[in-house]
User: What shape does this take?
Amino acid sequence: MSPLLFLLACAVACLFIWWLLIETEGVYLGKRAVIWLYDLYARRYDRVKQFDEYSDQLLLAEPLLDRISPQVDPLILDLATGSGRLPLLLARNGRFHGHVIGLDHSRKMLAVAGSKIEQERFQAFISLVRGDAMDLPFPDGAFDAVACLESLEFFPDPEAALAELARVLRPGGVLLTSNRIDMRWMPGRIVSRSRFTQILNACGMLSIEFETWQEDYDKVWARKAGGTESRRASAREPNAGLRNHR
Ligand SMILES: C[S@@+](CC[C@H](N)C(=O)[O-])C[C@H]1O[C@@H](n2cnc3c(N)ncnc32)[C@H](O)[C@@H]1O
Assistant: This one.
């Protein structure tokens, strides 16, 4: 092999490895690789993502609470909670008086979430559980709302994970999730809005709404078919607003 050809082969191999490990976050290498990479990445995750509290409150927490309203003490599951983005948004929001369970498979991501929850003294609002998206350790209909943000495409079987989310959601409960729309780098892992709708319908989800959200993701709302009664009926909190970090 000529030196030029050898260099070219090395460059292609490096690009491929970069794509497998960095660009697609190990998704084509299986669940263990994905979790291993998130364990490695956990301490840098928030710095890289640079979440904006104001826009996350406006675009995630507030509309979720609006949809659950008038119930103010819902039980919510945040699947693949990572560093605790959604549980912390809800706990900081003065309208929320319920409890969020954040589930993730990565010990290190959960450790980052746990230290933030402890620092802000939100233990009464948030519990963390280590588990697998494909086999949720909760009974049918246990939650008033379920969420799974920026994560479905990393699971071994996103459709099965959506079916699990629908299973643990009570009839009439709210689903908040995201559908990846950037198709350049994850072939076979991304579905169209119409296919996503079909998958959700097959899980018994109705009132499906897509919202343009971020460069890489649409936000998706749905409601599980069946009753509209809250798990625990309660009145709306009169003084809404952001709760001080405690
Ligand atoms: C991009 S992060 C999203 C975190 C969070 N939802 C957010 O919006 O910041 C993806 C998360 O999915 C978790 N994850 C990947 N595969 C999983 C699985 N099979 N079961 C549970 N969690 C998983 C990873 O550990 C990681 O924390």
